[in-house]
């Protein structure tokens, strides 16, 4: 974490790095999330199959609050991003779920669109 959520303001920021092929688990954020890509190329995917390809210098607002999603590097590139969330008063508001399967990841790689 760069800054944990603290009262009365509750933004939290973290620098997150992924090696090629690495990705988060499925998760959601009570109050949403913003990712600023600092290095590499990656993907952001949602349960409905929407996938976007992101690269260094881009900023993406992750799905609306509480929408399940994941993000990570492509299979051939590293990815680093600053993740910014607003805490919900009990922490950073993130709910972690199950792993993204290899099949889901392969489908996302094939579908990843350039913004």
Write a brief structural summary.
This protein has 115 residues and is mainly β. 9% of the residues lie in helices and 44% in strands.
Low-confidence stretches: none
Mean pLDDT comes to 90
Shape: globular
Q: Whole-Å distance between the termini?
A: 28 Å
**Radius of gyration from the alpha-carbon trace, in angstroms:** 13 Å
The H-and-E topology, N to C, reads as: EEEEEEEEHE
- Beta-strand content bin: 35-45%
Q: What kind of sheet is the major sheet?
A: 7 strands, mixed
Let me know the number of strands. Answer: 9
Given helix and strand content, the structural type is mainly beta
Q: Approximately how much helix is present in the residues?
A: under 10%
Q: Count of helical segments?
A: 1
Explained architecture:
With 115 residues, the protein is mainly beta. It is 9% helix and 44% strand. The protein has one helix at residues 102-111, and strands at 11-18, 27-29, 33-46, 51-55, 59-61, 69-73, 79-86, 94-96, 113-114. The strands form two sheets. Strands 1, 3, 4, 5, 6, 7 and 9 form a seven-stranded mixed beta sheet that branches. A two-stranded antiparallel ribbon has the order 2-8. Strand 3 and strand 4 form a beta hairpin. The radius of gyration is 13 Å and the shape is globular.
């Amino acid at each position: 974490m760069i800054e944990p959520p603290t009262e009365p303001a509750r933004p939290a920021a973290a620098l997150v790095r992924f090696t090629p092929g690495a990705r988060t688990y499925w998760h959601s954020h009570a109050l949403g999330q913003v990712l600023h890509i600092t290095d590499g190329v990656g993907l952001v995917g949602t349960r409905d199959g929407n996938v976007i390809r992101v690269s260094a210098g881009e900023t993406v607002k992750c799905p609306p609050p509480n929408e399940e999603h994941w993000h990570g590097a492509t299979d051939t590139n590293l990815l680093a991003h600053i993740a910014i969330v607003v805490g919900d008063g009990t922490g950073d508001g993130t709910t972690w779920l199950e792993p993204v399967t290899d099949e889901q990841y392969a489908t996302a790689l094939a579908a990843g669109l350039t913004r």
